[in-house]
Amino acid sequence: MNNKQETKYELILNAAFEQMKEKGFEKASISQIVKHAGVAQGTFYLYFDSKGAIVPAIAERILNEQLEAIQQEVKKDDSIFQIVQVLIDQTYQVTEEHKEVIKFCYSGIAYYHSFQRWEDIYRPYYEWLESKLNIAMEAGRIPMGRSITHLASFIIGLIEQSAETYFFTDAKKSAEELTLYKKELYDFIERAIS
After folding, report:
1. In terms of pTM, does the model score above 0.90?
2. Which own/partner contact pairs does 100-106 have at CB distance under 8 Å and 24+ positions apart?
3. Which of the residues 10, 47, 122, 126 has the least number of beta carbons within 10 Å of its own beta carbon?
4. Quick one: residue 182, left, alpha or beta (phi over 0 = left, psi -120 to 50 = alpha)?
5. How far is 42 from 36, CA to CA, in rounded Å?
């Protein structure tokens, strides 16, 4: 994409993200999205063939935001256990901030696209964590002989599932409960990979 096309794509994506966050997936319409993006309706169809087709792009944006925040917070010499703590903290923060959008991203990906697209979106995140786990394994901080690919997938999946379980339920929880929940998750992962 050239800069002008990229700008229109970003405008549409930003508008869709905001409209769907505000109104939900079902109530946000393509006409509202393009109106808020300031582009013609036909421009939408240059990038997406339907409203559902924009869902993977929104999911990818959220995940990229999360991975970028994680990478900025992780320092070069951090241990794998410090990295796990950053993963937990950032995943919980992003999940809380975007919980309504994340909910429809899951249903949209499942309904409109194969789960292969979901795996493609997550690939950079998995690969980044795999590289960190590999360094830890080579340094003797975690046992050899494990599949780094599986371990990265398990860790990311467990952290995300626990954050979603925590934030997607309607029960009111205190800051102390959140701290304890995250600590127990960290302790579980630490024991599992040690």
Report:
1. no
2. 100/21, 100/24, 101/17, 101/20, 101/21, 101/58, 101/62, 102/59, 102/62, 102/164, 103/168, 104/20, 104/24, 104/25, 104/55, 105/55, 105/56, 105/58, 105/59, 105/62
3. 10
4. alpha
5. 14
Report yes or no: 122 and 152 within 8 Å, Cβ to Cβ: no
CB 55 within 8 A of CB 103: no
Name the amino acid, one letter, at 191.
R
DSSP state at residue 142 = S
Query: What are the tens digits of pLDDT across the range 47-97?
Result: 998 888 888 888 889 999 999 999 999 999 999 999 999 999 999 999 999
| Residue 3 pLDDT | 59
Positions of the chain with pLDDT lower than 50, given as ranges: none
